[in-house]
Amino acid sequence: MSWIRESTLNWFQLMAIKILRTGHIPKHVAFIMDGNRRYASKNGIEKLEGHTKGFDKFAETLQWCKDLGIQELTFYAFSIENFKRKQEEVNGLLNLAQQKFNSLLGEKHRAKEYGLRVRIIGNLSMLPQNIQELIAESMIYTKDHNRVFLNIAFAYTSRDEITHAIKDVIEGVESGDILLEDIDENLISNCLYTNDSPNPDLLIRTSGEVRFSDFLMWQISNTCVYFTNILWPEFNVWDFLNAIFYYQRCYSDMQKVIKMQDVKPPIQNSRLLTYLDKLHRKRQIELEKMYPSNT
Q1: Which long-range contacts (CB under 8 A, 24 or more apart) does 42-47 make?
Q2: Which of 75, 72, 46 is CA-nearest to residue 59?
Q3: How far apart are CA 2 and CA 51, in angstroms?
């Protein structure tokens, strides 16, 4: 099914969105899409079908966010820990991912019209080559789109992300590109997979689990967190709007903290700017190598 859909909201739901838009709307919302397997068990269907229903909900949620004017979304799709599941389920998830990335590439014109930029964050080297190629093509094709930013955490954990950032910093010191005294929180933030993104304003986790599962642990220290008992495939627009309303209630208390602590300060040091430009160009070259057809 399509990643990019027309709005299916009725007039009452659109009115609720219009009312919410009179308040502060988060610029960046992150989702831990939990509960697909429990949904499958609850409804007597195969686990893979539960994951397929989860993808349908992801695409539906993407459209709700567009209706509400949210500019950036990050979805936790596949943790590195998921590789520890039964091989049959892992293979099913990877096959499903292959189908969905093929589907995205099959509607390139719609992605362009929508202004959708897709960024996959995670340790892509852990994925099969065919999926690496599809991911690279999706990211390369949409890299100049700038209206909606969709980040998908795939083969991701926060510990792995921070580890890779620290390795890159060490390499920068060893090569003489930066000095030990250049290392601070801001430098590490700019070396993370999420370096192009503001930190999330709101994190939503479904299924009743009250934990973060190693998702964006560096980025969410000042994020408003909304937990719901609803299983992800059953998450509906009213559940989503409840989360937005919860964020708006929290916003006044969070505002001062956000202003003081959660905005990435610009890099002023020319040595650091040169190093970060080199690092990000290196990552772009690595991405392009994953997609042999890229010219």
Answers
A1: 42/231, 47/89, 47/92
A2: 75
A3: 15
In angstroms, the CA 293 to CA 295 distance is 6
Would residue 10 be called left, alpha or beta, if left means φ above 0 and alpha means ψ between -120 and 50 degrees? Answer: beta
The most distant pair of C-alpha atoms in the chain lies apart, rounded to whole Å, by: 60
**CA 225 to CA 54: how far, in whole Å?**
21
- Whose tokens are 């560096």? That residue is 218
Strand partners, 154: 78
Q: Contact, 135 vs 101, CB < 8 A? A: yes
**What phi, psi does 255 have (nearest 5°)?**
-55, -45
pLDDT tens, position by position, 7-66: 889 999 999 999 999 999 999 999 999 999 999 999 999 999 999 999 999 999 999 999
**How confident is the model over 145-153, as a mean pLDDT?**
96
Query: Are 255 and 81 spatial neighbours (Cβ–Cβ below 8 Å)?
Result: no
If you search the block for the tokens 């409840």, which residue do you land on? 242
Place of tokens 């996959």: 120
